[in-house]
Protein 1
Amino acid sequence: MDFLAKIYITLKESVLDPQGTAVTHALHTLHYRTVSDVRVGKYMEVTLSAASTEEASTLIRGMCDDLLTNPVIEKYTYELVEA
Amino acid sequence: MPQSSPSQHVALASARTVKEEKIYRTFGLTDAEYEHIVELLGREPNYVEAGIFSVMWSEHCSYKSSRKVLRRFPTRGPQVLQGPGENAGIVDIGDGMAVAFKIESHNHPTAIEPYQGAATGVGGIIRDVFTMGARPIALLNSLRFGELDDAHTRYLFAESVAGIGGYGNCIGIPTVGGEVVFDNRYQHNPLVNAMCVGLMTHEEIATGSASGVGNPVLIVGTRTGRDGIHGATFASAEDPHAKERSAVQVGDPFMEKLLLEACLELIATGKVVGIQDMGAAGLTSSSAEMASRAGSGLTIDVTLVPCRETEMNSYEIMLSESQERMLVVMQQGEEDLAKQIFEKWDLQATVIGRVTTDGMLRVLEKGIVAAEIPVSALVDEAPVLDRLALRPAYLDELDENGPLFVESEDFAEQLYALLARPTIASKEWVYDQYDSMVRTETFVRPGSDAAVVGIPGTQKAIAIVTDGNGRHVYLDPYTGGVRAVAEAARNIVCSGAQPLAVTDCLNYGNPEKPEIFYQLERSADGLSVACEAFKTPVISGNVSLYNESHGVDIYPTPVIGMVGLLEDRDQLITSDWKADGDEIYVLGDLERAQKAGLGGSEYLFVKQPEQALHYRLPEFDLKAEVALQACMLSLAKQGLVQSAHDVSDGGLLVALAESAIAGNLGANIHLDAVSGVERSLQYREVLSLMFGEGVGLIVITAKVGMTEALERAARAHEVPIRRIGNVSVSPVVRVSILDRLYIHAPIERLQVAWRGAIASWMRR
Amino acid sequence: MKCAVIQFPGSNCDVDALKAIEETTSQPVDLVWHTARDLSSYDLIVVPGGFSYGDYLRAGAIAKFAPAMKEVEKAAADGRFVLGICNGFQVLTESGLLEGALRRNDSLQFRCEMTELVVANHHTAFTRHYAVGERIVIPIAHGEGNYYADEQTLKKLKKHGQIVFRYAKEHNPNGSVDDIAGIVNERGNVLGMMPHPERAIHSRLGSADGRRLFTSILEVWGETHAAIQS
């Protein structure tokens, strides 16, 4: 089966996000006063084949832990859809 | 005229549509040009052929407006190993070593997408240099933007700087110098000119020539996509904003780093016949130019070109401007060698054609001839225009005398205001974003008169500078041209180096306006005369026209890139003051400086921004300047000088302040008796002396007791020299004339004004 | 002392490191390609600065999978010396040889400038020729040098004297926690630092303060080597 994994990577809450702070500030100067916080992250689409949803899930978690994220500062979530 | 009978298989089906629907017009070809093409081919061009002609005959590739003007430049000299016409020029620096260099504009792409526009400008110029077989060792950038009080300008500026850094830093070539000027004439049409210098031995020189029948033609580097199709035409269009963003290319510096290493490794094998960067007009111009230089032909099968996107047709493949690609002609049978080397660097090298004798550029697609054009028709027969030049009326309306200013102004405050002008202020905000030290040969980092880079394994170093003042050229195209070269050379000699040669980037407005073309012609005359005088031939360069927006043309802005040679790196001179008690001298005619006035000066633009363009630029004495620079060099070689700094933007006081800030030392300066007569000066004379930019001057410092030796050398060159004061450990710069103290400026205050200015704008 | 400098696709301070080691220690140095599978004969392995694999994904993230990095891990485990400079520091944290991570500079800009460092620990093989508390000038050139470690890790680093270099107070150029510029592993044979000592080996380059880092390694190596010999 072919799957499409949508992976969202962000910095952990405990890690300062200077890019997010800069964007927050910029939105405020553009008068979007109600914005209280912005966190900037990465979005990836990985297309893969696997025998089952469970297997695809395991593979994606493996990729994220091995390469796609740095667990010291980043966390991730993902969605799996059958392609 | 070359006659050709179309091969039987030429895909002519679309030729009729091209003609009847006048499709060639959408490519930027005029009706007359189309007729000429029909004449040259002896038939009507098909779609692909019309596309190929349109890019080859565009202003960007053919230099049709400027070609005649460029012929005026001196291009020869004993030091020149390769003059204009190749990817970059080359000069000899002795001991079997040579440097290759070139400057190029990327103005229009930057206006549309500043990060990628500036980045790919850097990428392109680097390829031009390593194509010659040289290892790139230094980058410089000459930038022009509007004033920083505009948010969009700040965006363009910040993104361009980030793009330049993003590319150069990643590839590992230090960005060692350049300049940034802010003036609203460039608000909607910023200039990004990038210069690259490379180092090589004489044996390593490679050229872009496709010779040897049957030799394989390879495309190497990244795969071809649809990016930048018609970029060359787009660069020649009047209003870049009207064009789509699709013509913007995206750079990949990592890929270019691999390409650089692979190409240098390949060239070192000695099996490369010719190699050429794919810049503007991609495969089309690289193949046509390589064949043209060798007087040969090329047959290319586009089906063999590795593509990034699906179903690309021959038109798209021939015109794509995907970055980080090169065209290589190898010796027959050496294809595999190329493939091996490129594989090591995770790159592709693919044979896509052969060299032929018939002088034709032949494009095959799935066995069918998609285009067949005599190379000479594309290159030699490209139109050369005789543009009309008319002296602009404004030149005759300029006021001879400077404006009258109300006296009793605070001079120190005026100095702080000048130092805080972004054009004059420290550019740290810019160059701290560039890796200026990688390769560990950068002896003088950005921010000095000229950057100085060591030649590994020798005592030698080269001094490099870019310089240009569009406002001066606007006020007096001829003199402005002379000054541009003189200033660049003066920066070089101030570091103790001997000027060698010039690369120029000619940025002008719309050449179809006779007044603009006059600016181009007259300033080119000035540049030529000065290049002769300083014995610095033009060995490479680039022309960027149609720099206009909303009907407003930029100032005529020739940017001079110059390289000089320092035989002994220990004789390097920098601009910072060195020690308490050192004596300060001015080399050059202070008496004239006091009379020349404020025309064209930054001071005038601070005081009277609306009126500033109404006053004439002071006359320029080229002969005196040549003597001044010869004198400076001889002082440097005799080791008489502790520091040297050229007087330019902002005038004498700014030059003094800059040396004080750099050395963190104060000074006591007396400008008495400058005119030879002890009298108090008129206010007008004081301003001219302190803030004028009319006369070539160099501020030097020397240890105590050198006066006689300095005066002797100056006399020998017939150059005036005057001692004006001493460097002092007390952190204050004092300037007086007779008993009046004009300036009492703590270095701290000078620093704050000069260092913080750009950063404080960019925090907004 | 046999030295190796690893070359990844995109490394660009490899030759600078080679020149600096040669000039300061007169020891033999080889450039080794990232595919190298046996680096067991080297006493010092340098993971140099640059943009390995374009720094795509995250700086240093892809390089950690190169075969040569397995050899670096072995060297670290054997107690041989490993020095990661700039991108090399990023590779070492990504591969877990050093604790923490390097984030984007807080200014969001690449910064290249001379920085003042304070030597925080001179009892390492890399710093014995410095004095503790000594201020030295070494340049930086990076966009992602903002060191991060959580509270617990930070405590541990301090407890074991693993913090070797700090940026001088008020001159932290990138937002690093505790002004950290360089750390060693617990054993003390692996150093990662953002500043470039190989660019500070001659006064005409603006500083010669980096020389002693290389001479320190040579001296320590000489002592252990002499001990083994006898």
Protein 2
Amino acid sequence: MSLILRKLARNNPRNIVTDAQILVLSCRKLSIVPSLYDGEQDPAPKFFSPNVQVLLKRLTRPDFNKVFRKRTNHGLNILKTPTYKFLTNEELEEEIAKANEKADRLLQMPPIVKIQKHIDDVLSKDPALVGYDTAKYIFTDITFGVANEHRFIVERDPDGVLRSCDHDVRKRLNQVYFPLHGRRLREPVMFADPEKFNSLLEREQYEFVLDRACVQYEPDEPSYQRVTSITYQHLDSNSKYELLRSTRHFGPLVFYLTWHKSMDNLMLELLQTGAVREAALLVALRQDLQGDVVNSEVAQGLVQQILPTPIQLKKPDRLTEEDIQIDTKCVECIEKYIVSNSAMKSQQELALQGFRENYQQLIELSRGLQKAHGNA
Amino acid sequence: MSLPPASGTGRYFAKAAKSIRLIRQGCTNRPFFHISVTHRRRINSQPVIEQLGSYDPMPNINNEKLVALNLERIKYWLGNGAHISTPVAELLGLSGFLPIHPRSYMTAWRNRRTERENLAKLEAEKAKETAST
């Protein structure tokens, strides 16, 4: 960009662009500071605990039309025609159970773990070997059936020290001898070059970036956490949550935002789209991760009520009395959260007010309908 | 052309002496070695009993020489009484699997000596130049 400007400036002397301006323009890159999971606290036990997993999966709001969408026809030279079958109720239930299982596999979340520590493990020092060779020797144990993370990989340095290799070397050698499909030996340019990475984010290719990061990196690598962190923050600042819903990356996104106490934008989006139950689940998640919510017991109790109800993919057009009861409890819980914890109080209150007005109309409508049918 | 299987295609005689040795597999000006077990009295161009690893003597862009060792199978063949050729014994010594081979120490010592001599020569030349000017 700065190059083009410079050319313009050279060709057109009237169009005066000072060097300072050019510098400012060329420096307009990502100003997002990535935050890694490198603190004192380890996120893994929290992330893998069953109640947090359930909350994250529910917040993903899986829509099977999106989960099972055709993504590429790579490897299929002929597209299959769909088959239609007549099934009995039992057979249909079986098929639905199968589809649920398949969706669970597709939506399995990439793990969130603490950042890895350097391996600094000297096995032996032999100063008599100084001068043997100017290159390092790297020895890999290729014994059959050993997992990549448990393989012996050691190096003999030119100064005669025998040591275990660090993570980056281990990853490279594992990829040399036991290649993983889709992983590159060198870092792909889209991650290595900030300009290319930025352009992908500008085009909102979040899912592509996250999918590729999952293949290229290990979850405890600093690069992985840097890439995902920048992507999540970019997505968060643009409020494009809908792009990641029903994918495996939504859970880690919510976990990231809640872990760093920056989930208020997500909360606002949930309130604006009228998903109060998910907002209440988000409050419960915050309680699980941070433990700083005022009415924690109410939120925990609400989770038990919300989880058995079916997932609401769109706004309901009829309400039962149970729905109304749950939703009013959710609204109360969120109100308290907004007063005590929120960083975007006025906006969220406004959104909640809008929801309430809409909801009141819906309640009147559904009660009127019931009366008209003679059920009330 | 597909590679022969790592289990090897050579004929196997239980009582014949085996040796673990480097077998050159690269092309002209590009050496590359397989670490293989074969009969002691068999030449290197003949099929081997089993491949146990590989050794790339040319440093890569990170200035590393890569060695792969199937330690489980190496232990098995050593247990069966296989002999080890000196280059392989040197590699196994450097890897920490065996004690360091004496020839490794010899090479290191000779390399240090030549370096010292070269340094001394350079210094002597410099001293001559300064004396003449």
